[in-house]
Amino acid sequence: MESENPMPIPPTGFFGKNPSLKIKEFQSYLSLRLGIIFGLNMQSTVIYYWVYHLTNDKLSLGLVGLAEVIPAICCSFFSGHVVDQNEKRKMVSLCLFGYILVAICLFVLALPAAEINLEQQTLLYLIYFFVFLGGALRSFYSPSMFALFGLVVPRQHYPNATSWSSMAWQLGSVLCPLAAGFFIASFSIPTSLFAVLCFELLMLFPLFSIAVKPILKKEKEPVLQSVTEGLKFVWKTPALLSALCLDMFSVLFGGAVALLPVYQKEILHVDEMGFGILRSAPGIGALLTLGLLAFLPLKTYPGRKLFFCVAGFAVSIIVFGISTNFYLSFLMLLFSGMFDAVSVVIRSTILQLMTPDHMRGRVSAVNTMFVSSSNELGDFESGVMASWLGTVTAVVTGGCITLGVVVYTFFRAPQLRNFTFDEKKRNFRIDVEFFRCPQNNQFLIDFGVEK
What is the pTM of this model? Predict the structure, then answer.
């Protein structure tokens, strides 16, 4: 006799294992994410190369990062409130049009006529100004895309969709340095910046194929109260707070991308294509890892794997710092990208799972302050440290500090160390912790909850 409740058959095939890819709007979302990050990262790569060859000054590279991080942090205090109160596709559209305008201005500045008619210092200040505008736009773009993600993907598909979203981001990150190196070497800086403008214009097509979404937070409230709610939520969610802090400090101290023009010119002695290959190495490693994660998803002990991968990232940066061999340097940057990809997927999934729909804009804005801005702040830190201590000492010191942060956070954040993607197990752990009996620690141990 057949069972009335047969066991469900596990999904098979490519789309069976990747159900998020069957969603048309998510396909457009991935195209949009890949294209915009490709354009922005290519623009950033060209700007770093442009500024260093204008000045031959390591501190100038750090100032590019500082010019972007100041508005990104300052505007993030209220950008989440604005995103939560407005329609998400509209917010992404406004940001994309802003990026297109910045791309036009940078292209005009790079033309030979501008370089002839402007003093070098004036040209440099104008580059910093448009980088500053880009940082302000990013403080709205990041929470807008994060909130839009939650509206095009069902909750049960978040882990799978996060892997593909991260893969799209990394694919853009991999291709853009190679494209930047090719365009700079084969054509010129103005041509490279014009290509960025073209890519950003093309992104209007996938953007407008996504339907207008409902506004989940309709009640109005004071900006200060709204912003405070987002900060309080992150502060009172230990696993989320620990993950953001760990990622922030690892990127802040362990980043070495800003100093790649120095390594290219003074340490490894390679040409522009070599610079593009080095710049793309972390993305290649991340892309390989994310492709693997799409078919072998992270299911067990994600918290502990996060700590292991950040430690592996730090070691890779230390070895890269002392390397004088191009191939070893490329390999270490490749490994750093592989470790970073796993940590990004885990942190992004934690962020998606722990954030209520009506708070996505504000929580993502806090994430921008913690993590996204740490990239540029890390670039500034790298430039300052390199000008004080020397390039190699700065990179190695940053990697060692990152290792120290990993060890400290591992012992101080048991909620992150024991985090699980399984919502039932996570809620069970929280419920048992809630009914803690202060006089009977053994009761807690029996239920598998750490003291």
Answer: 0.66
